[in-house]
Specification:
The chain has helices at about 5-40, 50-75, 80-100, 100-115, 175-180, and strands at about 125, 130-140, 145, 155, 165-170. The chain is α+β, with helices and mostly antiparallel strands. It folds into 2 domains: about 5-100, Helix Hairpins (Orthogonal Bundle), CATH 1.10.287; about 105-180, SH3 type barrels (Roll). The protein has a 5-stranded antiparallel β-sheet. The radius of gyration is 28 Å and the shape is elongated. The chain starts with a helix and ends in a 6-residue tail after the last helix.
Length: about 190
Amino acid sequence: MDWQAFKDQYGWIVQPALLTCVITLLTLIAVVVINRVLDVMEPKVPLPEMAFRLIRRIVRYTIFVIAVALVLKLWGLDMNSVLAMIGGVLAMVAIGFVAVWSLLSNTLCAFVLTAFHPFRIGDEVEIVPDNVKGKVVDLTLLYTTLKAEDGDYFQVPNNMFFQKIFRCRAGKDRVALGEQLLESKPVE
């Protein structure tokens, strides 16, 4: 098979494939160079480490998005339809996020409660505006269980401790929330 016959038969795929490889290589080089530049700049710029991590991620993802867009265009995909598809996916994610925001909020609050321990297992807690009080006996990812003096149990969503005023009195036998979260049963 001669070159011209090969080019006529497979030319439609060879050129985009080679250009895709070039774009990929240039993308990787750009990411490495920008990471090195940011490494040099980081000690000289008075920004917190977290801010620099965020900048690094934003720059890296921007480069990757541009590279993917170039490759998709190179292979003949219509960017309008790709953007419409991405918009549809993002809309579904947003709807799903709104549907489960309470679960996510309570889970995040469980981790914040274990990290900053405003109370511990065994402490007496009272949510003042709602007149709910009891001894903290359990913490899960979704709620904190309080045992009232009369033996009743209240399951308080974890995010309530960040939305309401609560009073805490240290108990005698206290257990850290993080330790209890790893347990399989409530402490009483």
